[in-house]
Amino acid sequence: MRGTKKSVSLIVIGVALVIGIVATPHVLLLIFAGVLVAVFLRSGGGWIAAKSGLPYHAGVGIFLCLIVLTFAGAFTAFAPAVTEQANELYDQLPSAANGLREWIESFAWGDELMRRLTPGGLWSSGSDAATMAVTSTFGALGNMVIILFIGIYGALDPGIYRKGALALLAPSIRPRGEEILDHAAATLSSWLGAKLISMAIVGILTAAGLWLIGIPLAFLLGLIAALLAFIPNIGPVIAAVPALLLAFAQGPTTMLLVGLVYLVVQTLESYVITPVIQQRNVALPPALIIAVQVLFGVLFGLAGLALATPLAALGLMLVRELYVGDYLRADDKGTGMSKTDE
Questions:
Q1: Confidence at residue 204, expressed as pLDDT on a 0 to 100 scale
Q2: CB atoms inside a 10 Å sphere around CB 174
Q3: CA atoms of 159 and 42, how far apart (whole Å)
Q4: pLDDT at residue number 121
Q5: Which candidate, 228, 139, 194, places its Cα nearest to that of 310?
Q6: What's the CA gap between 127 and 336, in Å, rounded?
Q7: CB of 215 within 8 A of CB of 243?
Q8: N- to C-terminal Cα distance for the chain?
Q9: What percent of the chain has a predicted confidence (pLDDT) above 70?
Q10: Phi, psi angle pair for 216, to nearest 5°
């Protein structure tokens, strides 16, 4: 009977997840993004509470206030410069892109290449483009609000959601369920902390490198590089595009130097910064990250691409704990197989 309850509870959870992935995948991604925010707030608030001796809720509240004050101070100090540089970037990018297009079309193969890269459906009418931009903007803002509230409520009272998740399991496996939840929280917390530090270093190094070679808008381009570093492998490539377009107007030598800056920073991030910062339990094979990014990008678009890496870290932990640890090792013990038998 106990085995039946265990199997049924796991089957119910598995079926519910499959239905959610098939029917409403973007809702699950939205919830997962909120969980990441909750983990971030819980980690910061818990650290403050442990160091100060205050209650956990007070620690989370102080951490939230510090975040709000930090963003308000940064906005007050840097908003004018960022706005000015963003407007300048917005003004310069079209002319730089047109210059690159004209240079490509000057070659015999260039005209055919540009025709293939710019199908007629890509260019919408002004009203359609404006409507799509407004709709996307409000949709993104709404999603951000939902993610923020999920994160805040999840951080302030994680116990109620933890109890709800454990209640779905059969009583015999609830202790193991608690261990898995603890491992999941620790994995996401370690990954997120390492990623935030890595993003900050990438932004600083990129801005410094571009400033040294005399590229305008170095601060804004560094900020873009830091934000897009959240998406490994693909994010840095996207971040380099506006910098390369601006450098093209100054000549091929400058463009080459800009590409070299991004290449050096990405190499340092991939082979020095991330391995040093990340703990062993969240280290992910590069090939696995790329494969998961491609899969989630194709299936779920930009949201899937952005969240592919933390989902891969979580999935790898679950495979290690549940499939390898609980199932395969239990099977080895049951059959009496030893390492020499293997």
A1: 93
A2: 15
A3: 12
A4: 38
A5: 194
A6: 71
A7: yes
A8: 34
A9: 75
A10: -70, 160
Q: How far is CA 217 from CA 74, 81, 86, 206, 276, in A?
A: 18, 10, 8, 11, 30
Nearest CA-CA partner of 266 in 228, 222, 236: 236
* Bigger pLDDT: 196 vs 137: 196
**Rg (alpha carbons) of the chain, rounded to whole number:** 24
pLDDT (0 to 100) of residue 37: 93
Does the pLDDT value for residue 134 go beyond 50? no
Torsions phi, psi for 24 (to 5 deg): -135, 65
Token code pair at residue 257: 């130097």
Alpha-carbon gap, residue 306 to 262, rounded angstroms: 20
Phi, psi of 125 (to 5 degrees): -70, 165
| CA–CA separation, 96 and 250 (whole Å) | 10
What is the pLDDT at residue 218? 83
CA 289 to CA 294: how far, in whole Å? 9
SS (HEC) of the chain: CHHHHHHHHHHHHHHHHHHHHHHCHHHHHHHHHHHHHHHHHHHHHHHHHHHHCCCHHHHHHHHHHHHHHHHHHHHHHHHHHHHHHHHHHHHHHHHHHHHHHHHHHCCCCHHHHHHHHCCHHHCCCHHHHHHHHHHHHHHHHHHHHHHHHHHHHHHHCHHHHHHHHHHCCCHHHHHHHHHHHHHHHHHHHHHHHHHHHHHHHHHHHHHHHHHHCCCCCHHHHHHHHHHHCCCCCHHHHHHHHHHHHHHHCCCHHHHHHHHHHHHHHHHHHHHHHHHHHCCHHHCCCHHHHHHHHHHHHHHHHHHHHHHHHHHHHHHHHHHHHHHHHHHHHHHHHHHCCCCCCC
The first and second tokens of residue 90, run together, are 């917005």
CB count within 10 Å of CB 151 equals 21
Output the CA torsion 138→143→145→149 (10° steps). 160
